[in-house]
Amino acid sequence: MSHDHKTVLATEFNLPKGVSEVAAKDPGTYLQFNTQMTTFYQQTYGELSRFFLALRDCRLIGSRCPECAQVMVPAATWHCPMCNFAEMEEVELPHRGVLAATAPITIFPSAAFIGEAPFARGYVDVARDAEVASFLPSRLTTTTGLPRPGIFVKGIELALVFRDERQGTIRDIFWVPLAEVPEALRRKRPLFESDLDFESPVAPAVEHDSAHEVALETALAAMSAMAGKIERSPRAKKDLANRRHTIAFRTGGGDFTMEIADGALRVSRGLPPTSDFVAVVSDPSVFSKWVTNGSLTDAAVEGSLWLPDRKAFGVLPILDRLPRSVRRDVGE
Ligand SMILES: [Zn+2]
């Protein structure tokens, strides 16, 4: 496999090599040298190019060895390492797959994926007819809001989706549960991101019962008490400064609204006429826990708090700071 690269920046951008002295008080003299944090370079995909060129053309291909019949996806090489580098042939793979193992959900991503969390990544078995095949590492997406535990479980059938704009990277594709693809689109090839509706996920139904009603009363009391303390907490006021949110919560004990404005939190019964987003919780004790020592982010990660999108998820860290700020400034 060749990964040729050449420098993008001209050599005059390079800092001169060498060590020089810096006079200082203690221990007297320091040595300094030039260094940098980042290098830019161009790199080819090498033998993987064929796989990514195919993705750009909305085709998913693997390389198949005519001798041992193993299928590689992504087609990382076209010469079988098991069979004395026998030339491998191209096979067109289905746009359906099965999740090989339950996928983890990433909440705190590395720098390259900031702003994209939470997201799920997993291994998809696409070459299911082959006796030996690699699994394709893939991004997994749902049309039902944020990824939650219980969606991307081992064995679930997936449909391949192509981004409308492709450039030849693994981000050109992702997978959604086949069950979320409307019947009329299940045979469409290629299936595009714009064929599916990710913008208006349908909120799950809540189970109403009297235990949840009691839990909501407790939670509302706890949140109102905290709202009162926020007025006496400089830290909490700072957490909320310059923020305006109207969040509608539908719970198994009834609906309520959380309003953030002018550095204050207001909690009231019922749904607002308009809101930033609607969140759904079956068991309102999530909010009592949040006030005492819990985290709404954790509730969203565990799946007990349903959120429509990443923007909604982005509000949770601010809310999660409030109980701690109040405790530090005002006490229990
Ligand atoms: Zn082989």
The low-pLDDT segments are none
Order of helices and strands: EEEEHEEEEEEEEEEEHHEEEEHHEH
Radius of gyration: 26 Å
- Report the portion of residues in β strands: 25-35%
Q: How many discrete domains?
A: 2
Note the main sheet.
6 strands, antiparallel
Please bin the fraction of helical residues: 10-25%
- The general outline is flat
The structure class reads: alpha+beta
Instruction: Name every ligand kind in the structure.
Output: zinc ion
Oligomeric description of these chains: single chain
Distance between the termini: 62 Å
Count of extended strands: 20
Please state the average pLDDT score. 92
Number of helices: 6
Blueprint (SSEs and pairs):
Layout: E1 5-7, E2 19-23, E3 29-33, E4 41-43, H1 49-56, E5 61-64, E6 71-72, E7 79-80, E8 86-87, E9 89-92, E10 96-99, E11 105-106, E12 119-125, E13 136-140, E14 157-162, E15 173-177, H2 210-230, H3 234-240, E16 245-251, E17 254-261, E18 264-269, E19 277-281, H4 285-292, H5 296-302, E20 305-306, H6 310-330
Parallel strand pairs: 16-19
Antiparallel strand pairs: 1-4, 2-3, 5-6, 5-9, 7-8, 10-12, 10-14, 11-12, 12-13, 14-15, 16-17, 17-18, 19-20
Describe the structure.
- The protein is α+β, with helices and mostly antiparallel strands.
- The protein folds into 2 domains: 150 residues, no CATH class; 121 residues, SCP2 sterol-binding domain (Nonspecific Lipid-transfer Protein, Chain A, 2-Layer Sandwich).
- Helices cover 22% and strands 26% of the residues.
- It contains 6 helices and 20 strands.
- Strands 10, 11, 12, 13, 14 and 15 form a 6-stranded antiparallel β-sheet that branches.
- Helix 2 runs parallel beside helix 4.
- The protein is flat and about 70 Å long.
- The relative contact order is 0.10.
- It binds zinc ion.
- The site of zinc ion has 8 residues, from loops.
- Zinc ion (ZN) binds next to loops.
